[in-house]
Amino acid sequence: MPALLKRPRRRWLRWLIYLIGAWLVLTWLPVVIFRFVPPPTSAFMIERHFAAWRHGEKHFELHQHWVPWRAMNKQVPLAMVASEDQRFPFHHGFDFHAIHKAIDTAEDGGRLRGASTISQQTAKNLFLWGGRNFVRKGLEAYFTVLLELTWPKHRILEVYANICQLGDNVYGVGAAGQQLFGTDQARLSEHQAALLAAVLPNPKRLHAARPSAYVQHRAAWIERQMRQLGGTAYVTSDHPTPPRNLRR
Predict the structure, then answer these.
(1) Are the beta carbons of 183 and 67 closer than 8 angstroms?
(2) Global pTM?
(3) Across-strand partners of 63?
């Protein structure tokens, strides 16, 4: 009798191993592919296409084109790091210092602010959907680990700068330069790069080309942080020097 009971248990265990293996292959394979191949689109861009189709937007056009890291104006990824994730070169996908700080602020009665890293945002934008439910957050953490295990830091920045939303139906630095400033991204100034980074919290409401007083103020702060981080070497060097008083 005990032997008969063990057979179904072993069969279920075998199927569980197969399912875990299949999940790893299906989820890790695109991560490996996109380590070398530019992603043709992202989950967020696909979601926007579906929304336009569902609402019957006849003249909908999404602007995005890939800019490789070697040709990218490094002021832009530097501005994004200065604005959103100054510990990016040193963490492994999760900034626990920022998480603890956000929790402490909330416990003291302040507003609960996000502590997502650029790695987490890249995972979310590329593979997942919007929202804040626990399933999506769990998958975001899972794909963040895969990205950090598979991609070098500059690849994460390269992909993020190419797929993040920077304006109304404008995704990535290549399209943002042309659509928002009428110039190639390689010619963007430090200030223009800071303006792009300044709208990232809410690119549907904030505008880099028509900056409000809030965006201008935030862009000025980002420019100061870019200089404090030591310039573009902070995102191009394999071993950047951590400056004092890193912030979130």
Answers:
(1) no
(2) 0.90
(3) 170
Residue 241: both structure tokens together: 């020097």
At 171 the three-state DSSP class reads strand
Residue 71: C-alpha distances to residues 6, 82, 172, 233 (Å) = 60, 20, 14, 15
Question: At how many degrees (to 10) do helices 190-198 and 172-181 cross?
Answer: 110
Query: Of 200, 199, 197, 203, which is closest to residue 226 (Cα–Cα)?
Result: 197
Task: Using alpha carbons, select from 54, 46, 27, 125 the residue that is nearest to residue 84.
Answer: 125
What are 164-222's pLDDT values in tens digits? 999 999 999 999 999 999 999 999 999 999 999 999 989 989 999 999 999 999 999 99
Residues near 37 by beta carbon (within 8 Å), at least 6 away in sequence: none
Quick: pLDDT tens for 149-169. Answer: 999 999 999 999 999 999 999
